[in-house]
Design goal:
CATH class of the largest domain: Alpha Beta
Order of helices and strands: EHEHHHHEHHHHEEEH
Shape: globular
Strand order of the largest sheet: 1-2-3-4
Oligomer: single chain
Low-confidence stretches: none
CATH architecture of the largest domain: 3-Layer(aba) Sandwich
Radius of gyration: 21 Å
Strand content: 5-15%
CATH topology of the largest domain: Rossmann fold
């Protein structure tokens, strides 16, 4: 109401990480009654790797990068609190394994045992939805056809660096793929079985090269965004007491966030591309009218 709006008609909207955050507000008892509708674009909450299963292990890895003592949780946390936030964010890349991946490193934590105050996330999202223990509001949610598929566009080039990367990728296929496609928590036997199935399904059993980039890109898009977003929407459609609308953005226009590095051709549509048409995105895109070709 302070901004001239209707306090009884508040819509939460978010994109990518903001989309997941919006869904988490649906799931949190702390957010009850604070909003009435949701627009969540290109990230669900039923995504592999999004929720941190072992936050202590992850925190120890971060603390080790700053030579903090790991002898007790208190000493470790006290040390991390002395480090500037910018230094911590600059170490984010070091928390990843290959090609600046996996996509998710830090994320939400389920607060099972915190009894000394409010808890934001009480249980696994699937269980909360199935038990209907969440905020039931109308939802518009969806995906872009080629979500993050461009992350492997570098494979289209024929540079020596690309050749080295591809050689490493294929020589370490059973190590790299579980990390970037978010199933590295499985047993070694399970990881090998899943990797074999993925290679048969997406790149048709071939080695990864610039001719099979589309297959790897599809696998990455499905693993990081599409499957989790679709599963979230499907589950909400079954249990939500209000309408759930799902979309897929499929328009490839003159502008886009991803380009072929050899031809400058727009790739996609990819992650964020529909925002070009919803908002005036300042960086990299001219202002255009709906009547433009």
């Amino acid at each position: 109401s302070k901004f001239g709006g209707d306090p009884n008609s508040v819509t939460l909207a978010g994109y990518s990480a903001g989309s997941a955050s919006t869904f988490y507000h649906m799931l949190s008892p702390m957010s009850k009654g604070l909003f009435h509708k949701v627009i969540a674009m290109s990230c669900g909450v039923i995504q592999r790797g999004l929720i941190v299963e072992d936050p202590l292990k992850l925190t120890k890895k971060l603390a080790g990068l700053f030579n903090c003592s790991l002898s007790s949780s208190k000493e470790m946390v006290d040390c991390l609190r002395t480090i500037p936030a910018s230094n911590i964010t600059n170490q984010y890349k070091a928390m990843r394994s290959y090609y600046n991946l996996p996509m998710f490193v830090f994320g939400p934590v389920i607060e099972h045992h915190n009894t000394n105050g409010e808890r934001f996330l009480l249980d696994d999202p699937v269980q909360l939805i199935k038990k209907k223990q969440y905020n039931h509001v109308p939802v518009v949610t969806g995906i872009v056809r080629d979500e993050f598929k461009e992350r492997f566009a570098w494979m289209h080039t024929n540079s020596e660096e690309t050749k080295r990367k591809l050689e490493f990728f294929n020589n370490n296929f059973y190590k790299v793929l579980p990390v970037i496609l978010l199933y590295d928590d499985k047993t070694e036997k399970e990881k090998r079985q899943i990797t074999d199935e993925l290679q048969r399904f997406y790149p048709n059993g071939e080695q990864i090269n610039n001719n099979t980039i589309n297959g790897l890109g599809d696998a990455f898009a499905d693993a990081t965004i599409i499957h989790g977003e679709y599963t979230t929407a499907k589950l909400l459609a079954k249990y939500n007491n209000a309408p759930v609308y799902f979309y897929m953005f499929n328009y490839l226009g003159r502008y886009g966030h991803a380009h072929d590095s050899t031809t400058s051709k727009v790739l996609g549509p990819t992650h964020h591309d529909e925002l070009i048409y919803l908002f005036y995105v300042l960086k990299g895109f001219p202002k255009f009218n709906t009547t433009d070709p």
